[in-house]
Amino acid sequence: MRMAMRECAVVLAAMSAVACTDYVTDSGASPSAPTGLTYQLQPSGSSGSPSGILLRWDANTDPNIAVYHVHSRAGANDVFDLRGSTTSPSFHDDGQPDLEYYVTAEGQNQQESSPSASIVVDERLRLPFPTALTSLSLNGAIHLSWTDNAYTSDTSAFWHYRIYSTSYDLDNNVCGTSWTLEGTTVGPVFLAGALPNGRPRCFGVSAVSVEGYESLWSPLRYDTPRPDAHNQIIFTSAADAAHSGFRFFLDANNDGQAGPLELGLITAGSSPSIDFTITKDVSGNLLLTPVRAAASVRLFAAGPITDLTDIDIAPVSGYARIPLIAQPGRGYVFEMNEQTAPPNLLRYGAIRVTALGPDYVVFDWSYQTDAGNPELLRVIR
Questions:
Q1: Which of 33, 121, 142, 349 could bridge to 367 as Cys pair (CB 3.0-4.6 Å)?
Q2: pTM
Q3: CB crowding 212-244: b at 16 or more within 10 Å, else e
Q4: Measured at the alpha carbon of residue 226, what is the angle toward residues 220 and 232, in degrees to the nearest 5?
């Protein structure tokens, strides 16, 4: 109902006049219904169990609006209840969301608008999970890649991928239970960095839709960072005797831990404690020659490899204590038996030759420091 009111100012003066101003206020009309209601779920890491829902709607410029009311119901046959109120055009509902929501606006006159169009939280909008997950062992990091089927299944519905990790128990072949979010990405690759070498990690990936629905996880994958280095150089003894031998790991402190001064040691080729040295045959070929009794070597593949990371898992057999010709692009794996009595502890190091000189070899190397780990290490029992 519209009511006319009068505000008067009495002027006490010689003329004794009265000044009046008329205005009109709306004491009965209700605000218009909110429009543009949308929602976005907040992923929790568990498919079908989001940590909350964020509702948004169009802001109304009507100065008469005092508050918005959010109503919801848990089931299609339930009655709508008041979920909460807010003065802004958004609302965060923590925990498991209800099935359906709508919003009303209340004016300064305490009149409530008609309901907005409702939204239904529909899990059928969930994307498929990545069907395969692979990894590469790096120095202090793990490179992950997976099938991009969640994106290709519906490019307009895709939002991003979420990458999770936890510890991995190598002895019992199980992942830990305390998962953490490593990060998110829109592409099917991710670099998990700042990881300690020699400590296995377990990884899983999910896909999230634009509505915030999180898919089931990909198959789990474990991997272990290991130290490596690039463009190392050692010489023949005739060219530089002090820099003609290489040792992947020398446990100087006898504590089983690989310190930075105990890895990738370049020393004299005459030392009986080195893993290999560089020799030259009568034809001028440079040879990778095992030295200490614990070390043996084999070619990784029949032809060149593109990168050191191609050597991800050490072969289980084929090692011998015979020199091999160093060839650019070829990969070589060294097996080091660090324990003579059963169970034999077999550690593995890998190199990829990058360049040759007349009396030197340039190579990249990697080594797995985690005892019992199949990522360049295996245990024979």
A1: 349
A2: 0.78
A3: bbbbebbebbbbbbbbbeeebbbbbbeebeebb
A4: 145
